[in-house]
Design goal:
Ser/Thr_kinase_AS, ATP binding, Transferase(Phosphotransferase), domain 1, three-stranded antiparallel beta sheet
């Protein structure tokens, strides 16, 4: 009987011989991975209370028995877990060397119930379908039985996020801001037009600038879903997530479905921060509070930017691309 690895080798051979286009190759590959590595029915709630919160270290191997990863270097750490550079040990047999990947490892508390785990896996599966040059690739997801942690296997990037860039450089010119955020607008436009997906957690820490100068959008919906999953009820609408300061007012309203206006608001806040060095609003937005115009913006540019973080979603530009074009 063919194993998943055998099927992947055959699939790759068909693609390399020109008998299978990239879209069909990705579709079939994902189906094989889902069938091989998805937890069995009824297993969603089983592992939640086993293992430590994370307690990981370099050199440790994680993952299911048939798909192991060796942790090499901790890249980032926060409330949403850890990101590690790792070696995909299964590719040793397929390629003759171990491919380098990034693992986003979520702490067990974020998948404490069967509902939370299922929602996160659904979100990861959606993110994996996104194939755009300005969105970091999510290859698959897996569960580490030893730590009870779900993790995402992603494209490994070298560079820095915009949060680090701004801390190092300070405010930027409007031309540079638009240069950095235009790819973000393209990525968000693709996700909405092709997949009806909204990011819901746009912020400088989720926009990455590679050493080659490429802009990549990170955490497409995953962090938002995980943060919502930490709520006690676990049944909040997807829109009730995001990061304070970048979160549009309507995101807090229960039952509202996420629309592009959420991301337009967050990008408008980012433009202000990148131009002024300060956030336009401290924490959740107070009614009637009007920030000062950044010195880097002309009066017409400031008027256009204010539309981006209008309290009413309908008053905002239709897309991030439209917002940036208005500046």
């Amino acid at each position: 009987m063919h194993t998943a690895r055998d099927k992947l080798r055959e699939l790759r051979a068909l693609h390399e011989d020109g008998l299978l286009n990239l879209h069909e190759f990705e579709r079939r590959k994902n189906a094989i991975l889902d069938a091989a590595y998805a937890p069995p029915a009824g297993a969603w709630a089983a592992p939640a209370n086993r293992g430590t919160e994370l307690g990981l270290m370099a050199g440790q191997e994680i993952g299911p028995q048939n798909r192991r990863y060796r942790l090499e270097r901790l890249i980032a750490e926060g409330g949403m877990g850890q990101v590690w550079q790792a070696l995909d040990l299964a590719t040793q047999a397929e390629l003759g060397h171990s491919a380098t990947v990034a693992l986003k490892i979520l702490p067990p508390r974020l998948t404490r119930s069967a509902i939370h785990a299922r929602l996160l896996v659904e979100e990861a599966t959606q993110a994996r379908r996104l194939a755009h040059e300005h969105i970091v690739r999510v290859y698959e997801w897996a569960l580490d039985p030893a730590t009870a942690s779900y993790f995402l296997i992603m494209e490994c990037l070298e560079g820095e996020d915009l949060e680090s860039l701004l801390a190092r450089s300070g405010p930027l010119s409007l031309a540079r801001i638009c240069q950095l955020l235009a790819p973000v607008g393209e990525a968000l436009g693709y996700a909405w037009d092709k997949h009806r997906l909204v990011h819901r957690d746009i912020k400088p820490g989720n926009v990455f600038l590679t050493r080659a100068g490429e802009v990549k959008l990170l955490d497409f919906g995953i962090a938002a879903r995980a943060r919502g999953g930490a709520d006690a009820a676990g049944l909040e609408a997807p829109a009730s997530s995001g990061t304070a300061g970048y979160r549009a007012p309507e995101a807090l309203a229960p039952g509202r479905q996420p629309l592009p206006a959420l991301d337009v608001y967050a990008v408008a806040v980012m433009v202000y921060l990148m131009a002024d060095g300060q956030m336009p609003f401290a924490g959740e937005r107070a009614a009637g509070w009007a920030p000062q115009r950044p010195a880097a913006l002309t009066a017409p540019q400031w008027e256009a930017l204010q539309l981006g973080f209008s309290l009413e979603p309908a008053a905002r530009p239709a897309s991030v691309g439209a917002l940036l074009a208005s500046l």
